[in-house]
Design brief:
Blueprint (H helix, E strand, L loop, with lengths): L11 H17 L3 H9 L3 H20 L8 H6 L9 H15 L2 H21 L13
Helix pairs in contact: 1-2, 1-3, 1-5, 5-6
């Protein structure tokens, strides 16, 4: 019998719950909603597909499950309406959802990873890091 070692102390159900709550908020956010709706669409089915995709991304990143084969860097960097300024409100709201839905031992490292990913996207978009080169590990 083999036991899978999870990278982060979260469950599949917690990841799914965070994604559902977070993206429900994104859809109606005054700055982020229009950008996301422009890329995803506005129907519930389109959003369900996007949430399923992003849930697979986070399950892979947090639990090492695999099942995600997209290229989020390319998607974010090549979309002219996705700007570095949008990452701050995204991360703020993401942190709020994580803090509300998860214990600190799960929320804190997950937000740290999301922040590092966002920093790498910003750098790829040409933004200079404020505090030197970010640690991307």
């Amino acid at each position: 019998m083999s036991t899978k070692l999870h990278r982060f102390p979260v469950t599949d159900d917690q990841i799914a719950r965070v994604m559902d709550i977070f993206y429900a908020r994104i859809r109606v956010h005054p700055d982020l909603g229009p950008v996301f709706n422009g890329h995803i669409g506005t129907s519930d089915a389109e959003w369900d597909d996007h949430i399923a995709l992003i849930t697979r991304f986070w399950r892979n990143a947090l639990l090492g499950e695999g099942g995600y084969d997209g290229n989020p860097m390319r998607v974010h960097v090549t979309s002219p309406d996705i700007t570095p300024a949008l990452f701050d409100p995204w991360l703020t709201m993401f942190g709020q959802v994580l803090d509300a839905e998860l214990p600190p031992e799960a929320a804190t490292p997950w937000l740290a990873l999301a922040t590092r990913i966002g920093a790498s996207f910003r750098m790829a978009m040409g933004e200079t890091p404020k505090n030197g080169i970010p640690n991307l590990r």
